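User: My instructor asked us to take a sequence, write out its structure as tokens, and then describe one feature of it. I'm not sure where to start. Here is the sequence I was given:
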Amino acid sequence: MSGINNPASRKRSRLRGGDVLYLGTAGLRARPTRAVLSALGIAIGIAAMIAVVGISSSSQAKLNEQLSTLGTNLLSMQAGKTLFGKDAQLPEDSVNKVAALDGVLRVGSTGRVTGISIYRSNLIDTAASGGLGVDVASLGLPAVVGATFDTGTWLNAASSEYPAVVLGSKAAARLGIVSVGSLVWLGGQQFSVVGVLDPVVLAPELDSTALIGETIAAELFGFDHHPTTIYERSADKLVGQVRSLLPRTVNPAAPDEVDVVRPSDALAAKNAADQAFTGLLLALGSVALLVGGIGVANTMVISVLERRREIGLRRALGATRGHIRAQFLTEALLLSALGGVGGAAIGSAATAMFAVVNGWQAVIPLPVLGAGIGATVVIGAIAGMYPAVRASRTPPTSALGS
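Assistant: Let's start with the prediction itself. The structure tokens for your sequence are:
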């Protein structure tokens, strides 16, 4: 009998892992609707963060694919301003000078035909030009800028001498042209459409332009043979060297009047701007995640208050404070993990859907998924700590009497 009454001889109450998991899900199973709504707060935050990162990664992958296909060795030149602030002009022989430069592989050019507009027919109001320009294009331009055709072909030595026109993608859409052979009204003359370009990623200015041959432009509109924009492709290793030589090559007398840009830099700058916007969206997703964590904490506090009798009974039957803490902390972790897994699934689905709509390859970084779910576990631990401690400190007598 003395051994029975001796506290040191009593076996310490133990709680197995399976028991902890069963007790931790008791509250969730008892009130599934509240559990789902609480987890939804976490899920929204995680879904937002994963979708933002996934969409940004997919966009970056698309950009890298474009640059690897189109190349980063394209440079374009335009006339800048004179010393007195007037518009400068590129010399007539600029294209030949650039072509003779060491390291240059291909050269193409366009020249603006001023005062000339293009319309669907002569019945259209002359004020409704739609912002479309008319340019003279060199025969080798598509190969230089990487242009492809939606329909038709490019100008050649024969068609450039006749009223034939190639339309950029936006120009064709605004004019309502869907097939070659259609007639348009250009500079008071009927021109036949021989080709329609796909969007030109590295030279988007061509999308809203009608392109004609140099011979017919000089004959009908008095084109002065001065190029407006020159495009050149150089060897990848020599891009920097060629870029530094172009202004002096094109206009030795006034190299400062020649502006040289690399179109791929514009794509990279756009992507950098998108990345900055991504950071803002991630911050908003973090706020949503924080709000979700507060919701879990609130749910757990209410759960402790509602289950005071259960806590008191378990304490009276021998459950230790550690057992109570483990039970409610497990419940908070499971609640957050439920939201994390659901949010990861929603975010991944949103990324895949957005990528498919835009024709991208869906990229969902696995480390981001793991980090997102891990973040929910940490938030669950933090959110459940106070309610768990509060539950463990509930005196059995007061709990059973309440």
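For the description part of your assignment, you could build on this observation: The first helix runs from residue 2 to 5. Try explaining in your own words what that tells you about the chain.
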